[in-house]
Design brief:
- The protein is an alpha/beta fold.
- Helix content is 27%, strand content 24%.
- Helix 5 runs parallel beside helix 6.
- 43% of the residues are buried.
- About 3% of the residues have low confidence.
Length: 248
């Protein structure tokens, strides 16, 4: 792309060969591909952690990632697809998620009311060069121990989630008390990835879908929507969503 032309975030096909089988193709921004693959394998339920990856090779010129795992891969249809390609059968249902207690995360109301949450989102965006070049890109990061780490960008919201999860797993960053910051809407699929990865909470500039809320309620995942607006919405596991008191 010419530097004098209009901005256009990079998007290319990259396919995953898992244990010798072509199992998935992303349309993605071709950065941090190791994190993308690792996070996808965890979020889709193929592995529980990076220790189960025996070998991971990136072939950028071919748009291919080759992964070998120590456990047999699940069936070709990724486990977290909300609808499978089968004859009218759901590949995923909320009832598969055991009802769990709310995970331990920082006080989201205090985080917002102190102005800290907005500052963390701004810090995330400042670390996103593609956003600065013209936008059209999703951003994500992990908030852990009060600090922003593992900042990633991609044209796809789900790809951002995979990259953040994968980067954290590869760096042995604990996800249990961590919050993922996302620029885009939280879909049911993103919530499933968070559940499988063991993430404590997800904060978005948008809002979660109804399916994402149902998944989060069962899994004990906290969510906060409209994180940079005057009245953010806190989604407490097992409770109705509430606007943050005193916000505005």
């Amino acid at each position: 792309m010419s530097s004098s032309g209009p901005p256009a975030p990079p998007e290319v096909p990259v396919w995953l060969q898992l244990n010798g089988k072509h199992i998935w193709t992303w349309l993605c921004t071709p950065t941090s591909l190791e994190s993308l693959a690792c996070g996808w394998l965890i979020g889709e339920g193929h592995i529980s952690g990076p220790d189960q990856i025996v070998q991971l090779d990136i072939f950028e010129s071919e748009g291919r990632i080759s992964a070998q795992t120590s456990e047999p891969a699940a069936a070709a249809a990724p486990p977290s697809r909300v609808l499978s390609a089968g004859p009218g059968q759901a590949g995923f249902s909320v009832e598969r998620i055991a009802i769990s207690a709310a995970r331990s995360v920082p006080d989201l109301v205090a985080l917002y009311e102190s102005g800290r949450l907005g500052a963390l989102f701004r810090q995330m965006f400042e670390a996103c060069p593609l956003r600065a070049q013209g936008g059209g890109i999703h951003s994500g990061a992990l908030l852990t121990d009060g600090e922003i780490v593992h900042v990633h960008e991609d044209v796809g919201r789900h790809n951002v989630m995979d990259k953040v999860i994968g980067a954290a797993a590869l760096a042995s960053t604990s996800l249990e008390r961590s919050i993922v910051l996302l620029s885009g809407r939280i879909s049911g699929e993103i919530a499933v990835k968070g559940w499988r990865a063991g993430i404590g909470g997800i904060a978005t500039l948008s809002i979660p879908s109804s399916l994402a809320r149902a998944i989060a309620e069962r899994a004990g995942i906290w969510m906060i929507g409209r994180s940079q607006r005057g009245s953010p919405i806190i989604y407490r596991p097992g409770e109705r969503a509430d606007q943050s008191p005193g916000a505005g």
